[in-house]
């Protein structure tokens, strides 16, 4: 029996076929459009670049360790084939050139720890325009022409530290502010976050403040000079872990009585805190932000919808839980940072925000 196909049936068949094609396209190349920058014929295994501003601080070395470990896991899953690592040695112009080399090599993803919040905008935008997944973490750039930014809230970091110190001092006293390098967004943003809190407490007097590398030795040297010039200090608003350790060592060497101090999860600082019975508060910039950035870039390349900004919650370290951190100290370098555990389940949860 001959089947009669009506015009309406034919139209429905064509439309159904088109829908199948659309689903097929979405399952392959078009799905990549869910995340910013992703376009072109990019297929696993992917080539990943890690454009670091400098690798000397232990925090950076530990961060690189989480990145290489994550790449190893993704290699086992057949999602990554190689990792290119560069070190700009603190020079933003060098970092621009190194990112340009990654673009020229047509890498699939570039992970960036920025040496300048503004200088890298153009080269990062160029990478995005060429369909490369660009994920920026910790020290952020101004441009949003990238796939994702991943960070804790640096303003909240500074605000919370200032609130704790002011409360500990009873709302009055003379303090010194210790900052990381000027021009690095994570350092500048922590300081900006602290300012409204300081403004609201006029009986807290900032004697002076300083900027140093996130390393103990220069921080200790800077604080030693400040101790000679300032005989009366009631508290230290330190906006970095190595800065806090350097400050405590400077006070100790000068025979000065320790004062309330804020800080971070640097192992040396936490050990000094416990050893000397310091009045302290700390939070954490997890080193695994680097690993999460690699994972997010690969997820974007695989067609997943990665948020433009991934906010990682800030933990609090105080007298109630410091022992738990110190119990893990042996797993981290003596001059390193004791960071919280991470895994794929945590990463998926953060990317699902």
TrEMBL record:
<dbReference type="GO" id="GO:0030246">
    <property type="term" value="F:carbohydrate binding"/>
</dbReference>
<dbReference type="InterPro" id="IPR028082">
    <property type="entry name" value="Peripla_BP_I"/>
</dbReference>
<dbReference type="Pfam" id="PF13407">
    <property type="entry name" value="Peripla_BP_4"/>
</dbReference>
<keyword id="KW-0732">Signal</keyword>
<protein>
    <submittedName>
        <fullName>Ribose transport system substrate-binding protein</fullName>
    </submittedName>
</protein>
<dbReference type="InterPro" id="IPR025997">
    <property type="entry name" value="SBP_2_dom"/>
</dbReference>
<comment type="similarity">
    <text>Belongs to the bacterial solute-binding protein 2 family.</text>
</comment>
<feature type="domain" description="Periplasmic binding protein">
    <location>
        <begin position="52"/>
        <end position="305"/>
    </location>
</feature>
<dbReference type="GO" id="GO:0030313">
    <property type="term" value="C:cell envelope"/>
</dbReference>
<feature type="signal peptide">
    <location>
        <begin position="1"/>
        <end position="33"/>
    </location>
</feature>
